[in-house]
Specification:
This protein is mainly alpha-helical. The protein has one domain (8-65). The protein contains four helices and no strands. The radius of gyration is 16 Å and the shape is globular. The N and C termini lie far apart (61 Å). Bound molecules: iron/sulfur cluster (SF4). Iron/sulfur cluster is lined by residues 15-16, 19-20, 27, 30, 32, 35, 37-38, 41. Iron/sulfur cluster binds at residues 15-16, 19-20, 27, 30, 32, 35, 37-38, 41.
């Protein structure tokens, strides 16, 4: 009998395949660094290069985006 439950990281890979309509190339080229699945999109442990990319991104973009704040229902004043 085939084992039907996948590991969490393989499930993340499947979600990324779903997100890109099955395109492995688009997963490789994914630019949505804010996505929680981004480090694991290749279905394995993130490499140092991926971690460095994320670190660089958040060093340059320390403020959360307005869209994210709006989505979470947090009221932001324009002071
Ligand atoms: S990491 Fe990229 S490909 Fe994977 S779910 Fe997020 S946005 Fe989609």
């Amino acid at each position: 009998m085939k084992f039907l439950i996948k590991t969490p990281i393989k499930s993340i890979r499947e979600k990324c395949l779903d997100c890109t309509a099955g395109s492995r190339k688009e997963i490789r080229l994914c630019t949505v660094i804010q996505c929680a699945l981004y480090p694991y999109r290749f279905g394995k442990r993130p490499t140092k290069a991926i971690l460095d990319t994320i670190k660089d991104y958040y060093e340059k973009n320390s403020e959360p985006t307005r869209g994210l704040l709006d989505r979470k229902g947090i009221v932001v004043s324009d002071d």
